[in-house]
Write a structure and sequence with these properties.
about 475 residues; alpha+beta; Helix Hairpins; Heat Shock Protein 90; 3 domains; 13 strands
Length: about 475
């Protein structure tokens, strides 16, 4: 049961059915109340019309025994000021709801009406005035053996010599009750059927809508089990959110595949790069251990330094790949440029003070890598300059070497890439310097690009946001 109602399909069906049920109940209640109010209003109108018709006869001077009280087969009572029933429908057997339970007329109470009238109730009454207000009540009455519920209207009429008379006339509520019962029966039968139809349709529609989601889920489970990131989930031929989910999932899988492949290639290249200096250092140490006089101490130190630099580069790349954010230190980028350019042969620097925020050590590493790369490829001169361009701090490093071919200007920023395959590893490095430089620039919210320098060589442009 928990698993059944834990599915999206079941919850959607249950939710839709509940919403429709609430709407149907509200609509049914409104219809029933409106129907009852309308029919009750019609009964009130009929009762008031009958009461005023009798009141008009009384106001016109008709005697009690001359009133037409049995024409419509409805209960009618005429009561005087003392509460005595002075006229009523002939076949009236029982009545409730009017306040007067008597059904047989009685002579007027002593002192009420015209004391000098010697002719009794058969004498015509003096003309009178009908009251404007009508009061309503509900009750029941039995006429000629038939008992029904009625809506009663009470109208007063002032008759000279007889005082204030009250006419009660009833209109049956059978039509209202029958219509309400019919409406309730239709609702009790129709609503469950309609809810069943809504639930069935919602169940089928959600199954069709969620079928692609199940395909995506099953394919993702298969990819997880096989660890084959080259596989992709099926994209439904629709333009809805499920198709967008499938496309986004495939994009995520593609990015993950690229990342994993890049990581594998990085590990393989790092292992290859580390193997060479370690093997060379081990060979020199083994030779030195067997023949101390043949130990190349300078070469061993050089291999150790190279190994140290490579390990530092790999650790920095690992931290950058892990998402390490630079510190928010404020410092002078021009001073860093001057420090890195100092003591380098053939390097000239034009570095005014430009303040930025970030990691001073990482940006210093970028500048060192750019200057090392420029010195390796320059013929005679390397120039470095610092300037501002709007909100950007810009560092340009240019050399007068052969430059970088246009189709290789993005490839040189890949890890372990060396365009000059004829260079020795000692001269060319491991191919990590420019990759580190670009990663650091991106982590600082900037860019690192290369284009042709005015002298014909390569010009590397580093842009980082200036300090606010």
């Amino acid at each position: 049961m928990r698993r059944l109602f834990g599915s999206v399909r079941s919850r959607a069906t249950l939710g839709a059915t509940l919403v429709v049920a609430i709407a149907l109940i509200a609509a049914g209640t409104a219809v029933t109340l409106s129907l009852r109010s309308n029919l009750s209003g019609q009964a009130s109108t009929q009762a008031e019309r009958s009461a005023r018709s009798v009141a008009a006869d009384l106001a016109g001077g008709q005697a009690y025994d001359q009133l037409s009280l049995d024409d419509d087969d409805r209960p009618v009572q005429v009561v005087d000021e003392a509460g005595t029933l002075v006229a009523a429908s002939e076949d009236l057997e029982r009545i409730s709801g009017t306040g007067v339970g008597a059904v047989r007329p009685q002579p007027p109470a002593a002192g009420v009406g015209d004391d000098d009238d010697e002719e009794g109730d058969d004498e015509s009454l003096e003309p009178g005035e009908i009251g404007e207000e009508t009061t309503f009540s509900e009750g029941s009455a039995t006429i000629d053996g038939d008992t029904e519920d009625y809506r009663f209207a009470a109208v007063t009429v002032e008759v000279q010599n007889k005082g204030t008379l009250t006419v009660y006339a009833g209109a049956p509520l059978a039509a209202e009750q029958s219509a309400v019962r019919t409406a309730l029966t239709v609702m009790l039968i129709g609503f469950p059927l309609l809810l069943a139809v809504v639930a069935a349709v919602t169940w089928r529609v959600t199954r069709r809508a969620l079928r692609p989601v199940e395909g995506i889920r099953s394919e993702m489970a298969a990819i997880t089990a096989s660890e084959d990131l080259a596989r992709r989930v099926p994209v439904p031929d629709t333009h809805d959110e499920v198709a967008g989910l499938a496309r986004t999932t495939n994009e995520t899988l593609a990015a993950l595949e690229t990342s994993v492949e890049r990581q594998r290639r990085f590990v393989a290249d790092a292992s290859h790069e580390l193997r060479s200096p370690i093997a060379s250092l081990r060979t020199q140490l083994e030779v030195g251990a067997a023949h101390p006089e043949l130990l190349d101490l300078a070469g061993a130190v050089e291999d150790t330094v190279r190994l140290q630099h490579l390990a530092a580069d790999l650790l920095l790349l690992a931290r950058l790949d892990a998402g390490e954010r630079p510190a928010g230190t404020r410092f002078d980028l021009g001073a860093v440029v001057r420090e890195e350019a100092a003591g380098r042969a053939g390097v000239t620097a034009d570095a005014p003070a430009v303040e930025v925020t970030g990691s001073r050590g990482q940006l210093a590493r970028v500048l060192a890598n750019l200057l090392d790369n420029a010195q390796r490829h320059a013929r005679e001169r390397v120039s470095v300059s610092v300037r501002t361009d709007g909100v950007w701090a810009v560092v340009e490093v240019a050399d007068d070497g052969a430059g970088v071919p246009a189709d290789q200007r993005e490839r040189i920023f890949e890890r372990f890439v060396r365009l000059d395959d004829a260079r020795t590893r000692d001269d060319g490095g491991a191919g990590l310097g420019l990759a580190i430089a670009r990663d650091v620039a991106v982590r600082h919210g900037g860019t690192l690009t290369v284009r042709e320098a005015p002298e014909g060589g390569a010009l590397f442009e580093l842009r980082v946001p200036g300090a606010p």
